[in-house]
Amino acid sequence: MFIAALILVLLSGSMHAVWNLMTKKSLNKTVFLWSIHIVAGIILFPSFIYELTQIGLTATLLGFLALSFCFQAGYLVFLSKTYSYGEMSQVYPLMRGIGALLVPIASTFVYQESLSLMGWFGLTLIIVGLFFISDIHRGTKNQSTNSRKKLAILFAVLVGCCITGYTLVDKHLVGHFSPFAIIEISNISYIVISTRYVLRSKKLKQEWQRNWRTILVGSFFSPGSYILFLFAMSLAPLASIAPIREVGTVFGTLLGVLILKESHGARRIAFSAVITCGIITIALWR
């Protein structure tokens, strides 16, 4: 069962990195994210309503749904801000790294799961690699660049906190809803939060004219990446598989360096190897 979960998580991480690359390359990040969620939201809405009619909604379950709604909305709002200020090869590892750090720790308290000693060692390797890839310890003489970097790091940390939040909440919801229903909560949350801005921006037509192909691909990759992860959560302990999903960090770094031609490429790729070692350690000695 763990091997099947491992394969799903690796695919999930790869797809996640690709649609984040698409977001970074878009003209308007908020409009692009709204577009990929409106397409997926329309497709999944009928099945979501059907599931709601089949499940006895208790106050506790409604509370978890509301929490997931808030964390998912915050994740996407902060994501658009992060990519407006930072390089992908810098902020993507940081966003994913916060989740890699907090999810296993929190899951030991919330779900009584645990990692072995080697598992925690692997987790440490991941965090060290993410720290150096993120460049949070390096500054420049350009004040404007430093200001943008600080904003990028701030929003990336907020994204990571939201990742931790919805991962822990959705671990509970996956026992009551299908992965498709849970991903629809994300779609609805961002549609509700961002529709007013998108319509007032008057940039929707321009975004679709320029990026309609990537919007359609992103409409599949964005929900698809998390749906695969939700299926994996039903097969293996959260503390073991959540850090392994961070293999997407390696892909994201490579995409930023090789495709977007971002700076510090050699060093960031080198520390991706450290992350990979951490992922393998967790996978083998979970």
Concise overview:
This protein has one domain (2-284).
| Helical residue percent band | over 70%
Question: Runs with pLDDT <50, length 5+?
Answer: none
What is Rg? 18 Å
Order of helices and strands: HHHHHHHHHHH
- Total number of helical segments? 11
Proportion of beta-strand residues: under 5%
Shape: globular
SSE class: mainly alpha
Average of the residue pLDDT scores: 86
Largest sheet: none
Tell me the distance between the termini. Answer: 13 Å
Task: Give the strand tally.
Answer: 0
Q: How many separate domains make up the residues?
A: 1
Main location: membrane
Pfam families: EamA, Multi_Drug_Res
GO molecular function: transmembrane transporter activity
Family: Belongs to the EamA transporter family. Belongs to the drug/metabolite transporter (DMT) superfamily. Small multidrug resistance (SMR) (TC 2.A.7.1) family.
Structural notes for this entry:
By secondary structure, the chain is mainly alpha-helical. It has one domain. Helices cover 84% and strands 0% of the residues. Helix 3 runs antiparallel to helix 6. The model has no long low-confidence stretch (mean pLDDT 86).
Tag the structure with descriptive keywords:
286 residues, mainly alpha, 84% helix
Secondary structure elements and pairings:
Blueprint (H helix, E strand, L loop, with lengths): L1 H24 L3 H26 L4 H27 L2 H23 L6 H18 L8 H31 L5 H23 L2 H30 L4 H7 L2 H12 L6 H20 L2
Helix pairs in contact: 1-8, 1-10, 2-7, 2-8, 3-6, 3-7, 4-5, 4-6, 4-9, 4-10, 5-11, 7-8, 9-11, 10-11
